[in-house]
Structure formats: C-alpha cells, structure tokens
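QA checklist item 7 of 12: single-chain prediction sanity check.
[x] sequence parsed
[x] length recorded as 140
[x] structure emitted
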Amino acid sequence: MNKFSVMIIDDNEDDRYLLKRLMKKLDIATEIFEADNGQSALDFLTEYQFNKQKFPDDFPPIFIFLDINMPIMNGIEFLKKYSALRQTNKKHMSSIFTMYTSSEREEDIEIKELYDFVKGYIVKGNLKAENLQETIAKYL
C-alpha cells in the first residue's frame, strides 16, 4: 500500500493518539494532521495556498478521520461546511472521509449516505489494525 497524508479531526486526544499509533504501526502515513474540532479543521483546510506551500506533497490530506461529537463545531456541521468548500475549491475533491466515532446510532451511521466523499465508519471501541487497514484499502 502506498503511503498518503492523513488528517484526524477529534476532540479526544487519547483517541487521536490511538489512531496515530496504529497508522504508524501500519506505516501508511506520510504526514498526520490533527484538529480538535471541526472549526479548526475547516480553518486549516480553507488555507489551501498556505498549506500547499508548507506541505507540497501532503496537502490536502488524502484520508480524513472525523469524529461526530465535538465542541465548537461537531462532525455533522463540519461535513455541511466542507461540502460547500469542495464546491468552491475542487482541489479538495480527492479527500476521502471515514467517520471515526464512538456513536453506534443508526442515524449517525447513515451520515455516510448523505455525502459521497464519506466512505467508511469506524466505531472507536472496535478500532484494530486489521479493520483500519481494511477500511483504508477499500477506499483508496
């Protein structure tokens, strides 16, 4: 599997750490960007020119893991705003999202049906190297 850039948008530092640790174990990421809420992630992604210069081979991130329940801007609000960003800057069209959340509610799982760029859904409690690798391989 080729290496690629990743972004983790999650307010829980421990959950970000666990996901980063697994990605490092699998040796799949060239760069791992982090944000602790949807607004800071959106701000980072909106600064396209600046970040493309700073990370020429890794921006925008190819794979984005998004939590649902976060302060300031939750994952659902983020998806709405990111969808609009994709329409104004087509260079964001290549990013693939996987929901990375503790929620097993059916209405949350159905979020991936509303946005064509949201491909996967990983419940944090079920995170293992095998299902992470399968999810990534399935959508890349």
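[x] summary fact logged: Helices lie at 13-26, 38-46, 48-54, 75-88, 106-109, 111-114, 129-139.
[ ] second reviewer sign-off
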